[in-house]
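step=predict obj=UvrABC system protein C n=687
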Amino acid sequence: MADPSSYRPKPGQIPDSPGVYKFRDEHRRVIYVGKAKSLRQRLANYFQDLAGLHPRTRSMVTTAASVEWTVVTTEVEALQLEYTWIKEFDPRFNVKYRDDKSYPYLAVTLNEEFPRVQVMRGAKKKGVRYFGPYGHAWAIRETVDLMLRVFPVRTCSAGVFKNAARTGRPCLLGYIGKCAAPCVGRISPEDHRELAEDFCDFMAGRTGAYLRRLERQMGEAAEELEYERAGRLRDDIEALKRAMEKSAVVLADATDADLIALAEDELEAAVQIFHVRGGRVRGQRGWVTDKVEAVTTGDLVEHALQQLYGEESGDAVPKEVLVPALPEPLAPIQEWLTQRRGANVSLRIPQRGDKRALMETVGRNAQHALVLHKTKRASDLTTRSRALEEIAAALDLDSAPLRIECYDISHLQGDDVVASMVVFEDGLARKSEYRRFQIKGFEGQDDVRSMHEVITRRFRRYLAEKEKTGEWADDGQETSAPASEQPAPTETEQDTSGLVEEDGRPKKFAYPPQLLVVDGGQPQVAAAKRALDELGIDDVAVCGLAKRLEEVWVPDEDDPVILPRSSEGLYLLQRVRDEAHRFAIAYQRTKRSKRFRSGPLDAVPGLGETRKQALIKHFGSVKKLRSATIEQICEVPGIGRKTAETIAAALAGAAPAAPAVNTATGEIIEDEAPVPAGTSDERGQRS
């Protein structure tokens, strides 16, 4: 590791002008490329105190052995040069793109005497009209096959074309009417070019006028009793409509736009792009980005724009590009896009209407892509083994932590304070072992005290299980995961070691972890370690994962453990922490929703949820039930006279809530029936 001061340029040597800079390592390899409006101000940020740098930036400047720069005239030139150097040098500390294979386009070679329709990948060529990109080449061929009936444009290669011209016999498509056979002179070069241009117009979204023309010709043929021609035109119209149905209209006014959405966490981001042409989704593409450097959402958008349009021809940049966040500064990237297109480009965030709705759809696709990527990565046995080994090495453990437990505290402004415990065994979630806790030792918000209480209660149960074998009484404060998250026990769990219940399920809290992870930094780690020390447990390792910088904290250490950005161990710890957070949020929301749903009927002894719902369904609201007689209440199935009298007395003693008033009409809004209990939404942010 190098000392940045050893290669730091003198302030007077660095120009105060726009430019692009490169950091190189001791082997002269470029490890980072960046741009700046002011090279002097930007580079000064890298040579400050290392403790004040972001961990990834700190790693970069200590890996580097030299820095150099190139001065340019404008920020737009800096943007272009930065992209060129990133593509050329592939620096390890810049944002990385994975799974960004060359997507196929539908191309029409208008630069040839006889234009050809084909699937093309790679760099764009001058004089070729492109449509797409598409997710799969077969989608292009399927669409072209439908359209060749109406637009029989040449699709054969140059070799096949020359061979047909030499022999005077067209290929199969020429015989079945899906090629106009210009190779044997059935159509003139001018007419064939006009056919290709009609094909391009139709693909560009100008479909209505062409379909109306075909319908008019079909009607004229029918009036002139040319039924075969009318039938052929009818089939042509149906073929074109089927081709149009393959890309549904999503935006009005024949909009041309690209929509870019992101789903990200601290380590990775998934980029998803929808290409809308003529109001229709013509293609979709995406990739997963490694966040090697500290980047904002706006920075990721800028990188995505460079990746998307850096090698495209000008006509591939649409009039409108919709993004979730704008890069800072906006002017250079806006000007660069305008130069690429040769006309103004609108780069903005959609606020309302159809475009906002479509952007949400693109965002859901990005979120799904990120989850799928993480799932595939986590399912690999070799990767999981390497992750556990890296964790053991980083924390100086004697062996790989085959069982990891993670704890998280969740609350809403100090109310409904709960905790979660999730378990990973061999790097995979063990949902049957998940547990939930209510904080009962004190009132209010104190994450450190809450963590100490939860760890104490969990391991006190573990010690109790070591001393006895029978079933123990549950105090109702710790609960298992929902039944939907509890798979049946495997044969290996059904042993006779005394650690299983009579039904074969593992006893609660009977197995200790090799590693205990808490969601938080030094204070939470210290609280967990103190709880273990008070119980005399010294064979469980403890660490904490701080969310902001993904630092791993261990007890009695002033500095965190920094795992490499590409570390599978860090990735596994993050997954464990995020799962604990999700599970805690779900439980906290369930408790909150139950509290919000409570009402006068909850005070009636012996009245369960089923009969509450039956009463509300029968009368329509608590207000109408309150005004009902005992005889009317007895009409509800399952309600006897004694229960009806209890209900009437309870409602009479409860003060009715003030009626809600519609401020627009002045009408009183009747009480609504309570919302039935259901699964809580597990999405959201921790309060």
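step=describe
The longest strand covers residues 280-290.
step=end
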